Amino acid sequence: MSTRASHKYERVTLTFVPTSDERSFRHIPTTFRSTDRTYEWRHFEKLDYMMVPRKISNKEIKVDMFVELQAKGKGAQTQKLIENFVSAKIRTDWLGLKLAGISKASAAAPPEHDYRRGTIEEILGAQLDR
Predict the structure, then answer these.
(1) How far is CA 72 from CA 69, 94, 124, in A?
(2) Are 28 and 61 in contact (CB under 8 A)?
(3) CA-CA to 106 of 20 to 30 Å: which in 79, 82, 122, 130?
(4) Are the C-beta atoms of 128 and 26 separated by less than 8 Å?
(5) Per-residue pLDDT tens digits for 29-57
(6) CA dist., res. 12 & res. 81, Å (int)
(7) What are the C-alpha distances in Å from 19 to residues 53, 58, 79?
């Protein structure tokens, strides 16, 4: 059992609009690890996060982001940290995507350590060039 099981998590849904840039579908936000086909936890500033693509189309991309805040005083601070995270990533790692919205954080059941879902390729139904 994961040590994370006793922690509280929050989930936000990030909505992106792909631009006409062909890179849009090559930089889908995800924490998928292809070696063991699981989504992993990563760290940014004061939060741990896991990103799982939920919907990918030519009109919008929705990604569930599970977060665990590493500092006291949650609530509005969580939203601000997520906004800072998205702002930093969209300029550097998520090329070809434009942010359309961030849902309010809500309590979420903790995803399992080996939370499995289809790869981006499986969601799109095609192989991506890397």
Answers:
(1) 8, 29, 39
(2) yes
(3) 122
(4) yes
(5) 999 888 888 888 999 988 899 999 989 88
(6) 12
(7) 17, 9, 25
Domain boundaries, the chain: 3-111
How far apart are the C-alpha atoms of 76 and 58, rounded to whole Å?
A: 32
The C-alpha atoms of residue 81 and residue 87 are separated, in whole angstroms, by 10
Query: CA 75, CA 58: separation in Å to the nearest integer?
Result: 33
3-111 CATH fold:
Alpha-Beta Plaits (3.30.70)
Determine the pLDDT at residue 87.
93
Q: Give the up-direction half-sphere exposure of residue 130: CA atoms within 13 A in the CB hemisphere.
A: 6
